[in-house]
Predict the 3D structure of the following.
Amino acid sequence: MITIENLGLAPRLHPISCQLNGSQLVGIIGPNGAGKSTLLSLLAGQLSATQGRVAFGGDNWLEASALRRRQSLSFMPQQPHADGALTVAAVLQVGLVNLSLSTAVTAEIARVTELLALQPLLQRTMASLSGGEQRRVHLARALLGDLPWLVLDEPIASLDIHYQLQMMELLRAQARTGKLVMVALHDLSLAARFCDTLLLLDQGVLRAVGEPAQVLSDENLAAAFRIQARWLCTEQGVGWLPQLLQDTD
Ligand SMILES: Nc1ncnc2c1ncn2[C@@H]1O[C@H](COP(=O)(O)OP(=O)(O)OP(=O)(O)O)[C@@H](O)[C@H]1O
């Protein structure tokens, strides 16, 4: 479990507080510029907070050593980078070595390779891959070491619908193994369908946190996104028909 207390970065993110249990897939949603990446980057230690604390495993996570951070939290930024000249296999090897874990390298790389169906790509260079293929490699890299806290900024951006569904299932399965999995998402229908908890950010403010049905209320959708939506619930899942509000441009 993590407890976020008044975590903020002026002027981009107003102080936010919430508690998130492990074993959950948590979606961070909100319009462009709402502060999603800022929040995730603060948790990942890529940005320094101007105030607040984060309790994770007892102490203030924001003051944890670099090694503890590296071995507890896996971060995939919105625009992950890897040297284009490296093969996929090399990217995964370097990623694992950087974690300084005692994990068996070959077995761990085989594990994430299988999870992301990367076998056919292992000997290709990163530069030779499509955008979606590269994203799957970055996702595999984020899963290396089986760390307890995954923080992924738009992990399904640029994936086709097959891989979007597969990734959301995979991330939910990762959460079910006891991890806290936090993902920034723009697809609210997939967020509603797969996430246990949603955090809705709007103009740097935490507007709502809770179960998807509560957070994706008519009022919140209108205020944050200036849309209205009809939700379609079937046994297979949730879909929706979003529309611009009448009085918006
Ligand atoms: N490097 C930066 N320096 C100053 N302000 C920034 C910087 N990066 C982002 N911002 C601002 O911080 C606010 C939050 O940005 P952030 O990237 O966290 O939004 P986001 O919700 O992730 O948006 P998007 O959906 O467009 O990715 C925005 O107003 C943005 O303009």
About this structure: The chain has one domain: 2-212. The CA atoms of residues 53 and 63 lie 9 Å apart.
